[in-house]
Amino acid sequence: EARVWASRAFNRSGRFKKAITQTELILKDEPANANARAYHAEARLGQGKARIALVEIRQALERGANPNYFEIQGRVFQALNRNAEAISALTKALKSHPKDDGIRILRGKLLVREGAVKDGLAELRKVSPQNPRLAEPFLYIGIAHRDLGQEDAAVAAFHQALKRNNKEAEAHLRLGEIYRDRLKYAQALLHLKDAVEYAPKKSRWLPDAYFLLAKVARQQNMRLLAITALKNFEKTAPPKHADRAAVRKELNELGAK
User: Fold this and answer.
1) Percent helix, strand, coil in the chain (nearest 5)?
2) By the number of CB atoms within 10 A of the CB, which of 39, 53, 55, 160 ranks highest?
3) CB atoms within 10 A of CB 13
4) How distant, in Å, are the alpha carbons of 10, 35, 64, 72 from that of 30?
């Protein structure tokens, strides 16, 4: 039992190899140990092996409907972009862990992403009063308000997110978009520069942030910054990104090689 909980502690701290070692020692002696199978799946997810993790967490759930397993399954589905299934699994986890804000935040942001904006907003509002230092709920509250056409409320929420974590890259991006639409280019530029600086390397929106930064830089007659941003777009965008031709055209207009 101590090895089981040690494996989860290793997962929580990002030491996935150690978690795998611990769980495999258990599974060697007890192949049907559901906890070990679940936390082995969680470690595989941490290593980026979501499809393997999905098989293993299903095996764990066949042996018992533990709420911790549903949480892991929800995160696996999220990694596979199967958000509706992720929401369903997280709903089951919350029935047994209604005070787990980590699960509630994830469920809330997935609801927002899936277009159930009002439901997501209601879920996130349950979290933020209890966790005034967390930036993520405010980020998704802002996204929800923007989707509902409540732009001023969105701006306020994004600023609340940045008040708690000034390196919350997506909040900077969203503010950059809004300020650019409002023709407040100086403010947009500051937030877009922070967005690309603090963005996790694999952020899906990073190429678009570089393109938007380039457009704002051109509005501000900042040629070198625009060129740098456009070249970074080319480095980070998928080969078939719809804006590749437009970016190459802008680079040519700016006289870049």
Assistant:
1) 75, 0, 25
2) 39
3) 10
4) 20, 11, 15, 21
Structure confidence at residue 216 (pLDDT) = 97
State residue 5's pLDDT score.
Answer: 82
Burial class (CB in 10 A: 0-12, 13-18, 19+), 81: exposed
Decide: residue 181, CB within 10 A, 0-12 exposed, 13-18 middle, 19+ buried.
exposed
d(CA 46, CA 23): 14
Ranges in the chain, pLDDT < 50: none
3-class SS at 134? Answer: coil
CB proximity list for 60: less than 8 A, separation 6 or greater: 34, 35, 37, 38, 41, 66, 69, 72
CA angle 62, 65, 66 (to 5 degrees): 125
| pLDDT for residue 211 | 97
State both tokens at 224: 């070198």
Please report the DSSP string for 56-112 in residue order: HHHHHHHH---HHHHHHHHHHHHHTT-HHHHHHHHHHHHHH-TT-HHHHHHHHHHHH
- pTM, two decimal places: 0.83
The candidate with the shortest Cα–Cα distance to 32, out of 74, 62, 1, 70, is 62
Q: Tell me, what's the pLDDT at 130?
A: 72
